[in-house]
From TrEMBL:
Any one Gene Ontology molecular-function term assigned to this protein's record: metal ion binding
Family: Belongs to the cyclic nucleotide phosphodiesterase class-III family.
Alphabetical list of CDD domains matching this protein: MPP_1
Top EC category: hydrolase
Source species: Methanobacterium congolense
Pfam family of the protein (one): Metallophos
Gene responsible for this protein: cpdA 1
Keywords: Hydrolase, Iron, Metal-binding
Domain of life where this protein originates: Archaea
Domain Calcineurin-like phosphoesterase: 4-187
Record-listed E.C. numbers: 3.1.4.53
Full protein name: 3',5'-cyclic adenosine monophosphate phosphodiesterase CpdA
Length: 251
């Protein structure tokens, strides 16, 4: 049905950014020929214009269609303006008509703050997009930087969405099938109600927890099942989750 690559937290401009890791991951993604690549924020370390210029050049190397949303680091130093000029709009949708999938991208960043917020206007827009996708019988994916549900093995929780409860309720009530996020540099999958919440690790930073390696996720969406796979920088892969696909796509 669809094959998706999910990368996050590039942190271009950071002392911990490793170009070779990013190029290796991009080459791997291109070799996999995904139907779409979703990038869930923190393209840059400080939101500087020069960092966005470099990040844009890396993203241009990705051959598949892309949906990109900003992270908290991208909102530093008026980075929201740089993002819109050099990358694309900070939120929007991408429809894979052939595959019966719609991806709804949200901007959860707040200027110069680490914690996130979706806000009422974006929440209403998301709810309307979920409803229209439900009416069309599409597989519904939400993409944003900040996690909605706390991620294990990441220490004290302090950077979750400030309106996480409201957004979580809208996501579940709207029958979203999958939520993609980054931010914590720790890959993990939660399944709540009929929605899976998949967090990606950092694709090219050495700001890692424990023995984790830089990584990205891939998602296989078949008629009968969904499989979320962790792809690590050392070439190893493992299944993060495999579960039944309860969405019946209308062709």
């Amino acid at each position: 049905m669809a094959f998706i690559a999910h990368i996050s937290d590039l942190h271009v401009g950071s002392l911990n950014f490793k170009e070779d890791l990013l190029i290796q991951a991009i080459n791997n993604v291109n070799d996999m020929h995904p139907d779409v690549t979703v990038v869930t924020g923190d393209l840059t370390e400080n939101g500087y214009y020069l960092e966005f210029e470099k990040a844009a050049r890396y993203l241009d190397m990705i051959k598949s269609p892309m949906l990109v949303v900003p992270g908290n680091h991208d909102a530093r130093h008026v980075g929201d303006e740089c993002f819109e000029e050099l990358i694309r709009e900070r939120y929007g949708t991408l429809k894979l008509k052939k595959h019966g999938v719609k991806i709804i991208g949200l901007d959860s960043s707040e200027p110069d703050l680490d914690y996130g917020k979706v806000g009422r206007s974006q929440q209403t827009w998301m709810e309307n997009e979920l409803q229209s996708s439900e009416d069309d019988g599409l597989y519904k994916i939400i993409a944003l930087h900040h996690h909605i549900i706390p991620v294990p093995r990441t220490g004290r929780e302090r950077n979750v969405l400030s309106d996480a409860g409201d957004i979580l309720q809208s996501v579940v009530n709207g029958n979203a099938n999958l939520v993609l996020s980054g931010h914590k540099h720790m890959p993990h999958v939660w399944i709540l109600e009929n929605t899976a919440f998949a967090t990606a690790g950092t694709v090219s930073s050495l700001r890692l927890r424990g023995k984790e390696l830089s990584s990205f996720n891939t998602i296989i969406i078949e008629d009968d099942f969904i499989e979320i796979i962790l792809n690590r920088a050392d070439g190893t892969r493992r299944c993060l989750a495999k579960y039944e696909n309860t969405c019946k796509v209308i062709n």
